[in-house]
Amino acid sequence: MTSLMTASTAPPPVPGRATGATRPSAVHFDGVTRHFGATVALDAIDLEIAPGETVALLGPNGAGKSTAIGLMLGLLGPTSGNVRVLDDEPHAAVRSGAVGAMLQESGLPMFARVGELIELVRHLSPRPMPTDAVLARAGLTALADRPTESLSGGETQRVRFAMAIAGDPDLLFLDEPTVAMDVESRRSFWSDMRAFAAEGRTILFATHYLEEADQVADRIVVLDRGRIVADGTAASIKNASSSRHVRFRSAAPDQAFLAALPGVAAVDIAGSRVDIATADSDATARALLRSDLDVRDLEISGPDLEAAFLALTGGDRTAATTREIHR
Questions:
Q1: What is the dihedral of CA 18, 21, 23, 28, to 10 degrees?
Q2: Domain count within the chain
Q3: pLDDT, tens only, 1-35
Q4: Which of 149, 144, 99 is nearest to 124 (CA)?
Q5: Domain end: 212, 237, 262, which one?
Q6: Do 211 and 261 belong to one domain?
Q7: Residue by residue, what is the 3-state secondary structure of 170-234?
Q8: How far is CA 180 from the centre of its chain?
Q9: What does the pLDDT look like over 200-214, one tens digit per residue?
Q10: CA-to-CA separations, 6 to 2, 168, 184, 209, in angstroms, rounded
């Protein structure tokens, strides 16, 4: 599939675009609660997103991500609390053309050509980006005359992205933007998003690809059961997890012996491969090497974002959700 975007086709930064220092908060939640009947989707959320930040919104299904985005876009109203977007009511900010959104559920009209669809969206915006710039940013220049019903899944995602940026937004929402893209296209997409944010724009994206959040986001906000359970850089969230991993191979690993080593929290054995989760990797490794166990290909690794995410939203809720993580 054609690469989504390349540095050679990306348009130059927009002249005169205001920097974060001269603009109000991009998103502000003040004690926001949202109920759906007896269900509490969001529970007294406080959130501030600064202009120019690239923020990943993570959480398991039902955590409140879609509700939060719906409130930011003015599609929903809070049960209590206050939501401001670009220092305005959300629906007013969207109506002004300052907000763009690429929603996963949105479809494309049939029997329309890509270029015609982009033109239609541009005409609905009070300050549209030039058509050539939109097509170039989305990697669609060669597909401008292509009917929408003939697009592949990745090409359809690119058209959704083009529609989201056609109004030259200051704030851009992306919901699972790289679904159906191949690895090369995903890499190109996020490379261009960095350039897009460098122009002073704010990007908020939801994704299930944790490596995207780790590599791309300036900041990660983790939601679980309607509450923010972590808010900070990827490094700060990973470092707050006490778990390290000791991995090796052994001809005859002994589950009971390994579980009794100092610091060990869990032992996973698959054939000759052993993965030990430990709170003290140094002590675990020293005891392991002093033992009579046959140990080969020893590796020690720090926590990754996936482990931290699972700790925050999975089994060890008591320890993880009470830990406050700041940038």
A1: 140
A2: 2
A3: 333 333 333 444 444 444 444 567 999 999 999 99
A4: 99
A5: 237
A6: no
A7: CEEEEECCCCCCCHHHHHHHHHHHHHHHHCCCEEEEECCCHHHHHHHCCEEEEEECCEEEEEECH
A8: 16
A9: 899 999 988 888 899
A10: 10, 19, 11, 22
